[in-house]
Write a structure and sequence with these properties.
With about 350 residues, the protein is an alpha+beta fold. The protein is about 25% helix and about 30% strand. The chain binds 2-OXO-4-methylpentanoic acid.
C-alpha cells in the first residue's frame, strides 16, 4: 500500500540466543490481558566503564542481579512505552519510536542514567522486532506493547548515581488497557509531581508514588485520579498515567506540559490531528473550577485521557468534593471516536501517514 514513509534501517551487531521452543502457540490472542503475556525474546545491553555494550537478544527470562542494586532501593530507573501494529497486508508498523527514543534520554538525563545511543535504542528495537515479529497481533484493538527501560545496577547502598546499568527491551502482545470508560476523582490532597521534580520524565518512582492515592480512590469506587498541581490543587495536570483532554463546547482544551506534566506522544498526535481538522485548541492551565462549572452547565461534551497504553480512555464520571458528575453518553462522543479511528487507521497503515509517524520494520 505504501501509505507510510519510513523503513526502520537501524541495525546493530548483537549476539543472539534463540528460545528452544516458542511460547507463541500457547497464547490465546482473543483474550490477552494487558501486560501479562511476554514475547519470546528480549534485547539487553549492559553499561560499564562509560559505555553501553554487550548487545544481545536472549529468551525472555528472569535476570540475576544483586539485592544491593541501587535500582531496588532508590528507583534510579526510567522506562518507555510504545506500540507496533500489523497492517492488513501483514507488515509490522511501529508508531513514532523516534519520539520514545528522545523522551527516554530526556528521562535518563533527569535520573542521572547514561543516555542510550540512538543505534542501541532503535537498532535493538528493530532487531528484536524482526526476531519476534510473529508476536505482533493483528486483531482489531490489539498491538504489541514495547517496553524499553534502563536501571541502576551498582551494588552500593550509598547514594550516588550508579556506574553500571542495564538497558532492556521486551514486548507484550496486548489488547485494551481499560475495558470500559473510567470513573475518576479529582485529587486535592496528594500530588503526582511538582515543579522541579520528575513529573516530565518516565521515572519509575513517579508511578510508585501514585499508587497510594489511587488505592484510596479505588476504595471509594473510582478507577483513577485526575491529578492537580502540587501547590494549590487548583489546576488539572494529568489523569491516571495519561494526559487529559476536555471538549468544552467546541473547544479542545488540554494542560500545557512542563516540569510536572509528561509530554505525551499520543497527546501530541491528537493535537496534531485536531489542528489539521481545524478544531479550536487551547493548550493552557485548566482550573478545576472551570471543569466543574462546565459539568454543572452541561457544557463538558467529552473528557478523556490520552496515552500509549489506552490511546483514548473515556472518562464517564468525574468526582469532586464528594459529588459525582456524570458526563455525556459514549455514543455522543464524536470527537474522541474520530480521533481513535483516525489514529488506528494511521498506525495500521490503512490511512495516509502525512506526518511520517509510522516506521515499517
Ligand atoms: C500510558 O498510559 O501509556 C502509560 O504510561 C501506561 C503504562 C504505565 C502502563
Amino acid at each position: 500500500m505504501g501509505h507510510y514513509a519510513y523503513k526502520m534501517v537501524e541495525t546493530l551487531n548483537f549476539e543472539f540466543k534463540p528460545v528452544q521452543e516458542s511460547r507463541l502457540p500457547s497464547v490465546d490472542f482473543n483474550n490477552i490481558i494487558f501486560g501479562r503475556v511476554y514475547s519470546d525474546h528480549m534485547f539487553i545491553s549492559d553499561y560499564k566503564n562509560g559505555f553501553w555494550n554487550d548487545f544481545r537478544i536472549e529468551p525472555y527470562d528472569y535476570i540475576p542481579f544483586s539485592p544491593g542494586s541501587a535500582v531496588l532501593h532508590y528507583a534510579q530507573s526510567v522506562f518507555e512505552g510504545l506500540k507496533a501494529y500489523k497492517s492488513p497486508s501483514g507488515e509490522i508498523l511501529i508508531f513514532r519510536p523516534d519520539k520514545n527514543f528522545e523522551r527516554m534520554n530526556l528521562s535518563a538525563r533527569r535520573l542521572c542514567i547514561p543516555e542510550i545511543p540512538e543505534e542501541v535504542f532503535m537498532g535493538g528495537l528493530n532487531e528484536l522486532l524482526k526476531i519476534d515479529k510473529e508476536w505482533v497481533p493483528g486483531l482489531p484493538g490489539t498491538s504489541l506493547y514495547i517496553r524499553p527501560f534502563a536501571f541502576a545496577l551498582d551494588e552500593y547502598i550509598g547514594i550516588r548515581p550508579s556506574e553500571t546499568y542495564k538497558f532492556i527491551i521486551f514486548t507484550c502482545p496486548v489488547g485494551a488497557y481499560y475495558s470500559k470508560p473510567v470513573k475518576v476523582k479529582i485529587e486535592t490532597k496528594y500530588t503526582r509531581a511538582v515543579e522541579g521534580g520528575t513529573g516530565f520524565a518516565k521515572a519509575a518512582g513517579n508511578y510508585a508514588a501514585s499508587l497510594y492515592p489511587a488505592k484510596l480512590a479505588h476504595e471509594k469506587g473510582y478507577d483513577q485520579l485526575i491529578w492537580t498541581d502540587g501547590k494549590e490543587h487548583k489546576y488539572i495536570e494529568e489523569a491516571g498515567t495519561m494526559n487529559v483532554m476536555f471538549l468544552i463546547g467546541d473547544k479542545l482544551i488540554t494542560s500545557e506540559v512542563g516540569d510536572s506534566i509528561l509530554s505525551g506522544i499520543t497527546r501530541d498526535s491528537v493535537l496534531t490531528l485536531a489542528n489539521e481538522w481545524g478544531v479550536d485548541i487551547e493548550i493552557r492551565k485548566i482550573t478545576v473550577d472551570e471543569i466543574i462549572d462546565a459539568c454543572k452547565a452541561g457544557e463538558l461534551k467529552e473528557a478523556f485521557g490520552v496515552g500509549t497504553a489506552a490511546t483514548v480512555a473515556q472518562i464517564d464520571t468525574i468526582g469532586y468534593e464528594g459529588v459525582d458528575y456524570k458526563l455525556s453518553a459514549m455514543e455522543d462522543r464524536e470527537f474522541s471516536r474520530k480521533i481513535l479511528q483516525t489514529l488506528d487507521d494511521i498506525r495500521t497503515g490503512k490511512a495516509e501517514d502525512k506526518y511520517n509517524w509510522v516506521y515499517r520494520l
